[in-house]
Amino acid sequence: MDPAEYVSAPQAPGRRRPRLHLFDLDGTLLYGSAAAVEIAQQLGVEREIRTLERAFAQRELTPPQFAARACALWAELTDEIVEAAFTGAPWLAGIREVWEQIRANGEHCAVISLSPDFFVRRLRDWGADATHGSRWPEVPRAMPNGSARYPTRPVDPAGILSPSSKVKIAQELCAQFGVASRDCVAYGDSLSDAELFATVPVSVAVNADEHVRSLASYHYAGRDLREAYGLVPPPR
């Protein structure tokens, strides 16, 4: 079937209530990868970051601890490296098309991720109405003399998101866009999405692990967001 056929989810005649579609990033919009891994590949420290990722997945590191240890490995990080990581990342196909269709339906789409905000917010250019990521130290511009080093300040634990933060941000976005919580759809893949899945009526497990599959309304395995979006029935 042509993937374009999945970008339908037509509005029901006379519908007035908008929906809010909430997307995770790591492992969801990114196929089999994470923002930190993509950045680490550019810096030649992928093995070290994957070790941290495993420890985080096993709850051996808190989100602030993960951020602090990752930052310590990224002394050479610049905005140009972040851009290269973003551009070369294994994104699912059809992200722009899905978000364009959501907005054409009078609905809203947002990305909520524990990953660095300086990576997540680039998705606004792809059509996300809002993006929320952890506030890692900002990235310096490339300096000809190499004097700019990362991080320029310590990680502030208060700015690092947690799984419960996703629920709070979702509530804030509902208020911002005038959407009821009963009209939210969440897309995610892992334990960090479990709390949000438990609070919304419709959820899609995208290439997901066992932590969220049992919570999800629908399951998708593949590399095209149009197919995952196509599983969601139109609102009644």
TrEMBL record:
Pathway: Amino-acid biosynthesis; L-serine biosynthesis; L-serine from 3-phospho-D-glycerate: step 3/3. GO terms for molecular function: L-phosphoserine phosphatase activity; magnesium ion binding. Its cofactor is Mg(2+). Its EC number is 3.1.3.3. It catalyses: O-phospho-L-serine + H2O = L-serine + phosphate; O-phospho-D-serine + H2O = D-serine + phosphate. GO terms for biological process: L-serine biosynthetic process. GO terms for cellular component: cytoplasm. Coiled coil: none annotated. The keyword Hydrolase applies. Keywords: Amino-acid biosynthesis, Hydrolase, Magnesium, Metal-binding, Serine biosynthesis. It comes from the Bacteria. Belongs to the HAD-like hydrolase superfamily. SerB family. This is phosphoserine phosphatase. It comes from Streptomyces diacarni.
